């Protein structure tokens, strides 16, 4: 069985981080904590590793994972453009529970799946994971669960579902919130005829807080559930919860 490292123990933390770095470098998978739920991670630039991540979860290329980054400088390298409103979102909510979908930098050599030219990016508010991201670079990270099952909020749940498909498990205790990130689609702010930010999944950041930052750039609140976005409406990499890839 793949090892679990209790990262609240200093000696296990050092061993676990070393194992995780090496595993990512070899194109293997690692389960790690975030400030929302646990995630299953792979090198975002290793096509085989990303395919292995999707296979471990039991999902296909039509549901590509988002990417976790260590800071705004990495975001700038991954996306084609950062509109002023997205800068405002990042200043207010990063690190934290907001995933932002933007057009990807076209020169990047990667394959996250059927993204249709977009990428969903988040900077997590989790010290251990940020330290790992500083060393590994961007990681494709999906919620640590099998498709159709609840996202794991502790390491035991993740291990029960993912088993030996993962090389190492980094345990930081029960997730701080257990609420997945909010996903917003900001692609229409980049050359869109009608600039608007759409909420693809409601989660850790409420619509009310988003509207405080975005004002009228945020889509109108849905009248009822029938008005909420569906997987068919959402760009790849960012669909509502059980279909959504990210922690």
Automatic annotation (TrEMBL):
Positions of the UniProt region annotated as Disordered: 216-247
Subcellular locations according to the entry: Cytoplasm
A GO molecular-function descriptor: L-threonylcarbamoyladenylate synthase
Enzyme class: transferase
Main location: cytoplasm
Domain YrdC-like: start-end pairs: 14-205
InterPro entries: DHBP_synth_RibB-like_a/b_dom, Sua5-like_dom, T(6)A37_SUA5, TC-AMP_synthase_SUA5
Swiss-Prot/TrEMBL catalytic activity: L-threonine + hydrogencarbonate + ATP = L-threonylcarbamoyladenylate + diphosphate + H2O
UniProt biased composition (Low complexity): 229-239
Keywords: ATP-binding, Cytoplasm, Nucleotide-binding, Nucleotidyltransferase, Transferase, tRNA processing
PROSITE patterns from the UniProt entry: YRDC (PS51163)
The protein's Enzyme Commission number: 2.7.7.87
Family to which this protein belongs: Belongs to the SUA5 family.
Protein name, per record: L-threonylcarbamoyladenylate synthase
Protein source organism: Microbacterium phycohabitans
Lineage, opening ranks: Bacteria, Bacillati, Actinomycetota, Actinomycetes, Micrococcales
